[in-house]
Structure formats: structure tokens, C-alpha cells
Amino acid sequence: MRLKQVSRIYDAVIFGFAGIAGVMIAVAPFLILYDVALRNLLISPPAWIVPVIEYSLLYVTMLAAPFLLRTRGHVMVEALHQRLPASVQVPLEKTVHALCFLVCMVVSGYLVYLLAAAYASGEADVRAITVPHTYLYWPMLIGFILVGCEFLRCLFSRHSLFRHAPLSEDLAP
Q1: Which is it for strands 124-126 and 130-132: parallel, antiparallel or unpaired?
Q2: For residues 71 and 167, is the Cβ–Cβ distance under 8 A?
Q3: Residue 101 to residue 155: CA distance in whole angstroms
Q4: Residue 167 pLDDT > 50, yes or no?
Q5: CB-based contacts of 139: which residues, under 8 Å, 6+ apart?
Q6: Helix, strand, or coil here: 66?
Q7: In which band, very low, low, confident or very high, does the pLDDT at 169 lie, cut at 50, 70 and 90?
Q8: d(CA 114, CA 112)
Q9: Which helix (H) or strand (E) element contains residue 140?
Q10: Nearest CA to 50 among 127, 132, 137, 136?
Q11: What CA–CA distance (Å, rounded) separates 142 from 45?
Q12: pLDDT tens digit sequence for 16-66
């Protein structure tokens, strides 16, 4: 497989996960409305609604994170960066990208450990529905690996998380 093909597949994954996260965000208010409406009508709502919404928050966060980093849709404090001379800004950016990549990989490594332990023990989160702990660790592992890949991409490209230039063609799917 060529690098360009791998890049297209990777981009499709990032944008696909963002789309899934968007659908989950769109569905959640309707589930909440349904739950509240049934409660106000003194009808017992399905027990699965609240835990599904809670779990969806984890999935939405981890599925959307790489896309938000790619499109600079995340929250970032730029006060220090803007006040530095241009000669310091680029090395600082590269250092930040490298540190963020390393943090993502350390967290991913720990998540692999947690995932293996949860798989071996068969532990589950028991509420109104039972969810194996592995289902809670997978989205975090995938999300941190993909966010790490985004920081690595920033480290080895001209892409900047700080400069507010128009999004370039390398950000499109």
C-alpha cells in the first residue's frame, strides 16, 4: 500500500469517527427528551437510556478528538505563544507536539494494560445494563492513538495548531 492510500484510509477513519460522534450527539437529546417525557407522564422509562447516554459521552469524546485536533476545533490557550518571537514559536510548537505525542503514547500503553486486565478478569460495569470494561477502554485506546498520530503529523509537517491560517488541502479527507 502506498503512503497516499494509507493517508486516505486514515483520513476516512478520522472523518468517519467524527461522523459517528455527530450522530451520537444528535440522538442523545432525543433519548433524554423521551426519558423526561415518560417520567413526567408517570411512566417508568426504559432503564437503559441513562447509561447509554453516559457511555455515549465517552465514545463521542474519544471518536471526535482526532477530528477536532485536525481541524483546530479544540480549546487551546495561545497567550504565551502569541507573545513569543517568531524564531521561538516554531521550535516551541514542535516541542509541544512531541510532548503531546509522548503523553498520548504513554496513556495508550496504560490503556493496553487496562484493556488486557479487563479482558482477563472479565470485569463489567453493572448498572441498568451490563457493559464489559473492555467496551469502555477500547474507545479511549483508539482515540489516544489517533490523537497521538495527529500530533505526530503536526510534528513532521508544516501544519500548525497555533497559526490560524486557512485550513490547507492536507486537512481535507
Answers
A1: antiparallel
A2: yes
A3: 9
A4: no
A5: 58, 59, 62, 63
A6: helix
A7: very low
A8: 5
A9: helix 133-155
A10: 127
A11: 33
A12: 999 999 999 999 999 999 999 999 999 999 999 999 999 999 999 999 999
Cβ burial, residue 11 (10 Å; 0-12/13-18/19+): middle
For residues 66 and 14, is the Cβ–Cβ distance under 8 A? Answer: yes
In DSSP terms, which residues pair with 125 in a beta bridge? 131
Which residue has 417520567 as its cell numbers? 39
The answer to whether residue 91 scores a pLDDT higher than 90 is no
Residues 129/51, Cβ–Cβ less than 8 Å: yes
Question: What are the helix (H) ranges across 41-85?
Answer: 49-70, 79-83
Confidence of residue 75 (pLDDT cuts 50, 70, 90): low
What are the residue ranges spanned by the domains of the chain? Answer: 3-171
Q: Are the C-beta atoms of residues 142 and 107 closer than 8 Å to each other?
A: no
Give residue-wise pLDDT tens across range 93-103: 888 889 999 99
- Angle at alpha carbon of residue 75, lines to 65 and 10, rounded to 5°: 25
Residue 33 neighbours by CB distance under 10 Å: 10
* Cα–Cα distance measured from residue 101 to residue 147, given in angstroms and rounded to the nearest whole number: 8
